[in-house]
Specification:
Length: 135
């Protein structure tokens, strides 16, 4: 019972930490540090919340397993979720290397697809592990 509480607490901390960190760093949560150059959309908030919830569920589920394959995919899902809501124009390195017009034309339209893939990867890992537990 204690292990379950600890797992749920850790999952909630990971989910909340991901949402807060990603929201502030990407400008979805407005701060006086910088302005976001791409408008905030409900889709981005939805992807951020869904990715955070799935990461929290992943942490809870992972604590109950002895075998931890799939961690690399989960990390990839988290990174993909981050980039899906990030402002590509706000990243000075990307803007310097590729130029803002290239980012606007090619990267910005792909961000929602990246978010859907990230959510699918995280959801797929959780689903696969749940099926393995039931066998």
């Amino acid at each position: 019972m204690f292990r379950d509480r600890t797992a749920v607490r850790n999952g909630a901390l990971v989910a909340g930490g991901f949402v807060l960190f990603t929201g502030v760093v990407t400008g979805l949560v407005p701060t006086p540090l910088f302005d976001r150059m791409v408008p905030r959309t409900p889709l981005e908030y939805g992807l951020l919340a869904t990715t955070g919830l799935l990461l929290g569920a992943y942490v809870v589920q992972r604590s109950r397993l002895e075998e931890c394959s799939g961690d690399t995919c989960a990390y990839g899902g988290a990174v993909g979720g981050f980039f899906a809501v990030a402002c590509p124009h706000c990243n000075a390195i990307l803007a310097a290397v590729f130029g803002t017009s290239w980012l606007a034309a090619y990267v910005d339209p792909l961000r929602p697809l990246l978010g859907v893939v990230a959510v699918a990867v995280l959801g797929g890992i959780i689903y696969r592990r749940k099926n393995q537990q039931n066998q």
